[in-house]
Design brief:
The chain is mainly α and about 190 residues long. Helices cover about 75% and strands about 0% of the residues. It folds into 2 domains: about 100 residues; about 70 residues, Orthogonal Bundle (Arc Repressor Mutant, subunit A).
Length: about 190
């Protein structure tokens, strides 16, 4: 299951008030938000409040029909928390001389656009990997994902030595690059 599918499952679980999903979102994201707020003039209570407000925003979005997450869940939560925290700092006048307008200081639209481009590129790469075929797909997975060395790959795939496995990996990468850029040009 891809990261995109996993995050959409989390959103569906959140919309259904699945306690396990809610706890997973807290566990995976709260430490990042707490660190951000503690490092920016806040305390633990404020971090909990801001994260809770962001969870409410996320819940409302998740229960809205047609809502589609266009970036990683982590990025969405961070952006919402950052915006909420900067507004709170401005209200408390802890940050008023540095932040004239929260909208100017948090370019979420630009971040979202950049994340959409990255997600589209990852989607094209995922598609290229699915089209590359065997044994290239397994060989690249063994090297880059499973972190196997060339000697192990040579033995597993039946190559006579590590150099032959390395040559085959190189050919597979060229093929993957060709597939990716063919899609990239068509997607532009």
């Amino acid at each position: 299951m891809s990261n995109y599918q996993q995050e959409n499952e989390l959103l569906r679980g959140l919309a259904a008030n699945d306690r396990g999903v809610i706890e997973a979102i807290y566990r995976d994201n709260y430490p990042m938000i707490q660190a951000f707020i503690l490092n920016n003039s806040g305390n633990s209570d404020e971090a909990r409040d801001i994260f809770q407000e962001a969870m409410i925003v996320l819940y409302e979005k998740a229960t809205t029909e047609g809502f589609e997450l266009n970036c990683q869940l982590r990025t969405f939560i961070y952006s919402v928390c950052r915006r909420l925290w900067l507004k709170r700092l401005q209200q408390l006048q802890r940050y008023s001389n540095l932040v004239e307008n929260v909208e100017d200081s948090v370019p979420v639209d630009e971040d979202m656009e950049q994340h959409e481009k990255h997600n589209a590129s990852f989607g094209m790469m995922e598609m290229a990997i699915s089209k590359i075929g065997e044994p290239c797909k397994s060989l690249l997975d063994a090297y880059y994902i499973q972190k196997k060395n060339m000697q192990e790959i040579a033995a597993e795939f039946g190559y006579t030595n590590a150099d032959n496995a390395k040559t085959q990996k190189y050919k597979c990468l060229l093929r993957l690059k060709k597939l990716f850029f063919a899609q990239y040009k068509n997607g532009q």
